[in-house]
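Appendix B, example 12.
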Amino acid sequence: MNIENANRFEMGLLEYKRLLNQGKTNSLNKDCKTGMVKNILAIADSMPIYGYENVIGYYYKNFLYLLAKDHVVDRDEFNVVHKNLLNTLIELTVARNAKIKEEVDNIGDLVSILENSNNELSINDLVILLQEYEYSLTLSRVLIDKSQSECYNYTDLMVRLINRCIRIIHDGLDTLLICKTDESSVAIERSFTQKKFLEALSILDTMHKMDVLPILSAKINRYFKSLCATYLNVFGEEFKPEDSLIHLKYEQDMECYQHCLSVNKFDTYIKEYPEGIFIVEAECEDAQAEKLFDVSNWCDCYKDSKIDVYLEECPTGIFVTTAQKLIAECN
């Protein structure tokens, strides 16, 4: 969880509220007001934004710019603030895209390993590789969804990845089943074959859980059901999710994050997974869903002298105390 950026945001809010309090008492001349606005902008510009892990800083910076914008006295300075607002959003997109590229490049490395293996990779090798690249496969899926565009050949890479995995599984199991038809097979060979089936089913089950590529989910499910039927026919047992030999590190993270997405509330994820794989996205979503509405609503209501409307629409908002104080002063 990014505490430093949150603390800078709180500093900027305090300066903004000080500006409002002094301004309402008419004790603030133009130079003082300009100085306080510059302080808010300076705090916004000091956000420690470096790397994907700190992209929440772009949101906090944007919020402080929004608050300061309506109090800028000089027209030229207003234009600069407005331009910086737009640039902040562009910088946010650039930072997120850099992270997407990093993780998709990792997936590209995995695809290269699979495609250049010269049929030397086993089903067990796939199990190991999927666990090794789980972070990139899981995070890139969410980031690509949020970008709402095709990035860095992600779809092509995932199609190649899934097709190659299915081919390795198919070839490996075919060989085992041919061996199994030999009546001289001993119990240890049966146990080995069953384990390979479990590994194969675990791989397909994992792909389903990761939801790595929706356009291929039907193909994965068909093959998974076919293998489940073969497994039942050959070994007399049903494959159950708890039988999986792959234990995903981020499975519970994903479930919690997806639930938060469905209800558009992210405080649960932020509280339960402060170091989780989706903590950056959860904080950004929370900023979008909660703070952006709060700040934008406050700016509109303050500008239109409708502070009471803000209290009605944001009863637990950032500026409730400030709004109550301003209303009391007016009365």
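The chain has three domains: 1-73, 101-248, 250-331. The two ends are 41 Å apart (CA to CA).
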